[in-house]
Amino acid sequence: MRSHLLNDKTAARYRRTATAAVERVADQIAATDRPFTGITPDELAPRFDSIDLDQPLGDSTAALDELESVYLRDAVYFHHPRYLAHLNCPVVIPAVTAEAVLSAVNSSLDTWDQSAGATLIERRLVDWTAGRIGFTTAADGGAADGVFTSGGSQSNLQALLLAREEAKSVDPSDTSKLRIFASECGHFSVQKSAKLLGLGPDSVVTVPCDRDKRMQTVALARELARCVDKGLIPMAVVATAGTTDFGSIDPLTEIAALCEGYGAWLHVDAAYGCGLLASRTRRHLLAGIERADSVTVDYHKSFFQPVSSSALLVRDGATLRHATYHADYLNPRRMAEERIPNQVDKSLQTTRRFDALKLWMTLRIMGADGVGELFDEVCDLAADGWKLLAGDPRYDVVTQPSLSTLVFRYIPSDVTSPAVIDRANLYARKALFASGDAVVAGTTVGGKHYLKFTLLNPETTLSDIAAVLDLIAGHAEQYLGESLVHAS
């Protein structure tokens, strides 16, 4: 069994096996003509029934053949131009190349003695991102810092942990008084984080949005004042730069001013909108983000990186001390005194992948402008798609996009029942997924079911959007026709 360990004696075997796997995936991608096969769980599950995990195949070719049957053949492929569903981006080749390197070397980013240069690469990328946000880093006499995370939910959790601890340092008496303010369009991880932090079900105050799905600052001001009047403590405001459903960007400058006035921590969830940091034409949409106390970025959304590649950035690196715990076997306090750079001092995780290498290789090969151009392309496509939807009498589109998301629904000309229209849209989405011709997402707006295009693939065209809209209308009309026959 030692022959399967990667080391100096097995390097040739590793090269052959890895090359075979890459070729298998490349062949599958080249042959993919639709984003999904439409297979159902009931159809796929039986393939696993005969697999005995206690009886190995003993051969990489046989294992790859099996993998093709149970996974590769029926995977959902985000690179296809008609995958239009969730915040899943096609990935750039430099980042995939980095995956091969980081997986084989297998550095762990918790301590210097497990990572060496990997730690310095992550720290340099943290400084680079902080600079793009507008924070001042140590190189320029500032204190901004950060750490890579598993994704936006973890970044939001850590940001609110820091905010809670900062609020407790001012008034440690009763954490039940702490309140977090987030818009009705914000990410569910805010409520989940509050629960994990032991803040109670009433700790998150929901702030309404305007017609463009942006947090209403007048409403936020009212809720902050009400909070103080009740003797409660405004712990944090979570503003969003790119909501999951609408891609909307909250008025960051106005929200920052309110936070400063009330002494509340400002966290900006830019998991989606962080791609604007690399844009040469849309960076202004993030005006005010530099006044945040913390920012979430998900490179695996709008920087075209493989999952996972994310980070939490803070304006004052000293606040990261709230995540620090010194373990004698790992990062004893003396190491900090000796200025040994242990990233575990900043992280909620201990063992952690070298995900930063993917972004490093991307920037070193493509450059930030190259990434920004890709994101600008999908934003331009969304703007054109909105015009197409707005001019199509079959559809109602919710709001003009700030980023690359379109929320809409099919409205038949001769049906007035909201419940029937809802069912037609639900059916159309399911039927489209079952066909494998395209994949779209769904959400609710005002209690009604809507469909959603999340455009993150520069290869998607306006013709693709038009074709998928025709497919949706066809499925919805089929449902309505069948419903009419059954009703008669």
3D structure, described in words:
The chain has 488 residues and is α/β, with parallel strands linked by helices. The chain has two domains: 2-77, PLP-dependent transferase-like (Up-down Bundle), CATH 1.20.1650; 100-366, Aspartate Aminotransferase, domain 2. Helices cover 42% and strands 13% of the residues. It is built from 16 helices and twelve strands. The protein has helices at residues 11-31, 41-44, 46-49, 60-70, 93-105, 117-133, 152-170, 189-196, 217-229, 252-262, 299-302, 333-337, 356-365, 368-390, 418-435, 462-487, and strands at residues 83-84, 145-149, 178-183, 204-207, 233-240, 265-270, 294-298, 310-314, 395-397, 405-410, 439-445, 448-454. The strands form two sheets. It has a seven-stranded mixed beta sheet with strand order 2-8-7-6-5-3-4, sandwiched between helices. Strands 1-11-12-10-9 form a five-stranded mixed beta sheet. A hairpin with a 2-residue loop joins strand 11 (439-445) and strand 12. The longest helix is centred in the last third of the chain and has 26 residues, at 462-487. The radius of gyration is 24 Å and the shape is globular. The N and C termini lie far apart (68 Å). The model has no long low-confidence stretch (mean pLDDT 96).
